[in-house]
Amino acid sequence: MNYTISEIAVIIKAEDYKFPEKEVSVILTDSRSLTFPEETLFFALVTERNNAHRYIYDLYRKGVRHFVISDNIANKDKMPDANFLKVPDTLAALQQLATAHRNRFDIPVIGVTGSNGKTIVKEWLYQLLHEDYNMVRSPRSYNSQIGVPLSIWQMNESTELAVIEAGISQPGEMDKLEAIIKPTVGIITNIGGAHQEGFASMQEKSLEKLTLFKDSDCIIYNGDSALISDTVEKMCLGTREIAWSYKDKNGPLYIIKVTKEDENTRIRYSYLQYEGEFAIPFVGDAAVENAIHCLAVMLYLGKGPNEITKKMAKLEPVAMRLEVKEGRNNCLVINDTYNSDINSLEIALDFQVRRATAGMRRTLILSDILQSGMLPATLYRKVSQILMHKGVDRLIGIGPEISACEKSFGMDAEFYLTTDSFLNSGAAERFNNELILIKGSRDFHFEQISEALELKQHETILEVNLDALIDNFNFYRQKLKPETKIICMVKAFGYGAGSYEVAKSLQDRGCDYLAVAVADEGAELRKAGITMPIMVMNPEMNSFRTLFGYSLEPEIYSFKLLKAFSKEAEQLGIMHYPVHIKIDSGMHRLGFTFEDMPLLVNELSAMPSIRARSVFSHFAGSDETRFDDFSLRQIAIFKDCARIIQNVTPFPVMRHILNTAGISRFTDEQMEGVRLGLGLYGISPIGNEPGLRNVSTLKTTILQIKELDADQTVGYSRKGVLSRKSRIAALPIGYADGVDRHLGNGKGYVIINGRQAPYVGNICMDVCMVDVTDIDCQEGDKVEIFGDQLSVCVLAKWLDTIPYEILTSVSSRVKRVYYRE
Ligand SMILES: *Cc1c(COP(=O)(O)O)cnc(C)c1O
User: Fold this and answer.
1) Which residue of 584, 653, 682, 765 pairs with 694 in a disulfide if CB–CB is 3.0 to 4.6 A?
2) What are the tens digits of pLDDT across the range 445-470?
3) Domains, the chain, ranges and CATH?
4) How far is the CA of 489 from the centre of ligand 1 (A)?
5) According to the model, what pLDDT value does residue 702 have?
6) Which long-range contacts does 381-387 make (Cβ < 8 Å, 24+ apart)?
């Protein structure tokens, strides 16, 4: 929902602001999650760990114009059109805004709190109810003083039911969350653990949690818990209660019998005057407790016993994403650098148990677990118990807290204060035949560890000049208007150059967007720390979780994809996920045609889970003058389609059609953005463009030199027939590295010491031979296959192909080496 700046200023009592009529719809607190700069209101939060005022200028350069601040701002003079709403406390302002937003809705809001199971209850309620209601729920486990306001902010005109999680770690916090959530129905899952941070007693903790429900119409809890029942009584909430019980036959919800079978649990209950029974596909005690809470909600909402039975049978585990990679020294690496809390640790360890094969030791690399709400001593004692329970062989603990609790772990364990100290210790070299689970809070950047542990091989190298890349970026940049966005194509492993390094250099130079071909390429970039927006050109139907998990924005080119993607977004409770609409203006590869527009805009306007961030099209022949009429027609069709989409979209939709050749030849059609590919890598698709610089050079060295007589032959099938006494050099590179076999037998040459050395005989898989009879050279000398001295365009001509194919054919076993001048 949109708010004007003046509306917000009144709510948060801000001073000093300009542009009161401007509108925003997105709230941002984590600068790395920026997606819609124009519509974003950034809250510069100040925490013990961080002061987000420092990101303001960077966000400004990325297009954000509205900021809620509490401190003075550096560089203020460089941001003349920025809007600063000054308040005494930015977190309090965020909460005030969320509170005002919540008060606009008169719908059921379910608040979930308790020590364990909150997220699962919330997710299960979603699974059980989303077909009946337009629902909003807290993303992941956004349950904190910051997470709750962001969860509430998702509510909009069409929301019919909200499920919001609330977590606290200190006295006084729940009051604030209560004001924001104002739950009409409350669930308290349980109160566990010993004394927690800041709470004097279990009673105090229980009281504090229950304040969430002081104005609720109904509260749901385990009536057999004396602690919770007593607290409810003491608070005299005077609301309806569904205190479920295994003992109280006369209570509102009596659990008659729980029967565990191999893979199911059957639960028989009586509610008001009838009995019912259902089964869930889980057997754990925690699952039963969670399911009963969900049952109570369904009963409260008036669902009948048959419907309950049907839906409960279909409950699914709450999703987790883990990947396994090959590591060095016969290791396997399971990467879960996404989050770390105690629940997800257990799940990840279960996964590790399942992946383990006989004889493989199981190792866990674990960071401090942040924001657990427990005292470190208690927390790590618990972690230690879990590790024993799951049979972990070895622990590597990283972080000050876990290191301080070293003594809690009675197992083979080592500790490091920081990720860097672990990496510098050489410990990463010593793993052998282990199944390594890497689990860390984001702040610990454990992706560096997984990178260090991954398997890499090297022989011949592809040298990549990152300065040349930046020069090429600037070469095209200066052809364009300053406000035109540049989308850099790093698909196909950055045209062979290596997508991460290329992306990193571009990110540092103010490129606006990246585009990759498939979701995994984007995921790799995210894992490596690339934070700028990333488009995925060919999203596979089974990659949606990867897209959401790593904030990757898909290209949508068909109705089928559109429906499947928006449905998945909806199921995950996501709103306004950015997508890019592909128009087929004449290429006839992928995309919506002009005729598709009426149906497309209809569908789009009925899909709140996604939103068109941009619309684009691709040329069939922008590099050739003979197709210019066709290209101009493509532009006209594209503009018509874009106009239709923009007309039904209440925010600006970026348009882009120019590729590299287009930028040089149809500069006036740059619209709001362009997609730069080949040119970035130093190759002009339209012939010579002075100013471009070569980026990638494929290099090897001479392995061995042989003197051969005129009657000898070289290589397979005796193809390399010599006509004179020759010196033949063998090079450690073959077609498996990406040297096209058709270059053999004199079709092409390599460069050695500035001279041309033709290929002799057939190119082998890992080796090839060249004639160096006339060249002054020796074993170990450098050889250029293509690059600075021999353009890929020349190879492309020999092979009757295009430079793109040559660049992207360099195989992944060739090590990429990056340098700056
Ligand atoms: C690859 C690609 C580009 C870039 O093309 P270049 O000719 O390398 O500039 C642009 N748009 C789309 C859709 C592409 O697939």
Assistant:
1) 682
2) 887 898 788 765 446 889 888 889 98
3) 3-95 (3.40.1390.10), 105-312 (3.40.1190.10), 322-456 (3.90.190.20), 463-681 (3.20.20.10), 696-820 (2.40.37.10)
4) 7
5) 92
6) 381/405, 381/408, 382/342, 383/342, 383/345, 383/408, 384/408, 384/409, 384/410, 384/411, 386/342, 386/345, 386/346, 386/349, 387/349, 387/411
